[in-house]
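Appendix C reproduces, verbatim, an entry submitted by the partner laboratory led by Prof. M.T., so that reviewers can inspect both the input and the predicted structure.
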Amino acid sequence: MTGRQDRVKGPLPRAYHLWLAGALASGLGDAVLYFALGWAAATHGGAVAGLVLTAINLPRVLLLIVGGTVGDRFGARRVMIAGDAVMLAGTLLLAVVSHHAGPAVWLLLVTGALVGVMDAFYLPASGSMPLRLVGKEALPRALAMRQGGAQLVTFVAGPLGGALVATVGLTGTALLDAATFAVVLIVLTVVRPVFDTPPAKGGGFVRDALDGVGTGVKDPVLRAALLVTGGVAGFLLPVVPLLLPLMAREEHWSAGWTGLLFGAQSLGLLGVTFTVMVRGAGNRPGLTAGAGVLVAAVGLGVLGSVPAAAVPSAVLIGMGSGLFASHIGPLVLTSAPHSHLSRTQALLTLVQSVSLLAMNNVLGNVARLAGPATAVLACAAAMAVTGTAALRSRALRTTTTAPSALRPSEEQSATAAEPV
């Protein structure tokens, strides 16, 4: 990886490792609970299962900007503590009610709505925490570690969720998730962000929310990064969970072979994130992210046109995805004003969510009408256009991560003793 950040030295702060361990444990608990909710909803039929998913996703999308504004006004750490406390109480209540009344439809819908609402407030705050804990210089390595950990959580969540549902049901799964929320609550009481500024105060709430959106739209780097992220979310993220299983059925691949392809994609992604963790990221994150989009486009093109080369194409897709994610995340966080970190993360999550929701339906219909291989090739073409646009964007192409002076608040914080 040319032009990598050789200036990044030393281990990441202990505070970050502690927070990340708690966050990944909570992520595992959440993923297992989502599996259990979906399984319980499926027993009531497809319509109820769809309603439960909607109960989770709709409030999350509608309230993300509100959640990001709350995070910047009151502090990300405070929002996360409040969110974990609410979810701890909610999952305990879910365990009690499901134990006595079973997985009733109303209980699943209420739980789904609670999860969606809390995600809208929690995700923007959590997304800004790596920068608040490690600062700019170590951010790419920190985010790569988080991305790799999240991928491992995804590996474990499916089998663990199935085993828990089969043995302890929704009640036991809810108790496990509650335990992870308790762990994160303890972690957050100990960990305090070093590279942080006081919560933003001043204007009205609506004005602050609009200002967060305006910052993302007006800033040339953020605007370009958000547009490219929307393209990747719409044309890359649906491929593995949606189009690959459809293509496997059309090509008569076994479940084991299809699972190998999932693993090959993850292998490519983890290989890149591990490299970034060890050696640092590229000095031109926008340029590297755009190159990652093109690498993924090549992988998609091979997958759609030469199914026999599915394994190497899956590795390429994972590598491109890893290159993009490990560079666009630090670019967005470091380009945002420190007073707008949660709002910027909310906007980034909103762009991803809306694009993914829309293109899941579009690509599903394309696969039904023209075949999944055609849908994959369409994604390859769209990703090639997206990657080319990223490389042609002056804002993304020329932005560097050269050392820069810390903000005054960061200079003061950097001299403080580590809080853990």
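Residues 41 and 105 are 7 Å apart (CA to CA). Additional entries are available on request from the coordinating office.
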